[in-house]
Amino acid sequence: xxxxxxxxxxxxxxxxxxxxxxxxxxxxxxxxxxxxxxxxxxxxxxxxxxxxxxxxxxxxxxxxxxxxxxxxxxxxxxxxxxxxxxxxxxxxxxxxxxxxxxxxxxxxxxxxxxxxxxxxxxxxxxxxxxxxxxxxxxxxxxxxxxxxxxxxxxxxxxxxxxxxxxxxxxxxx
Length: 173
Ligand SMILES: [Cu+2]
Description:
- The protein contains 2 helices and 11 strands.
- It has 173 residues and is mainly β.
- It has a single domain (24-153, 160-169), classed as Immunoglobulin-like (Sandwich).
- The radius of gyration is 16 Å and the shape is globular.
- The termini are far apart.
- The structure holds copper (II) ion.
């Protein structure tokens, strides 16, 4: 749904509802603040992020990611080898009780491959994170500008990022 209403008016009216939609909890596992980065025209690869939290009595394992905008999605870790940043695919991420794992730029993240359309700033992107015990958790995140470091309202840092542009060119093992 696209509404042509001044952005501030929309924010004022929808802020409480959005806060809820941004956080989904299933069986003690919470996925919060999902977002993705806008991609250039013609790009086939994008990246998405979210925070995953477990309550104090819950342990689980993230075992899969999917999105309707991508043919395939993977969980990636990022490591520095000397001056070279490398990404590698993770089979999953273990979550201890009371843990918070933030998927974010320059850290573990979601890669979206075979994008069916460019991710445009302001669009909403569905992500399904599948957990071993909690099962699939579906969230909907906003598409932020290419250099964004966090979701709306959390991105307080100046935009200075080389990764957004070159992400698709980085070496994948
Ligand atoms: Cu990656």
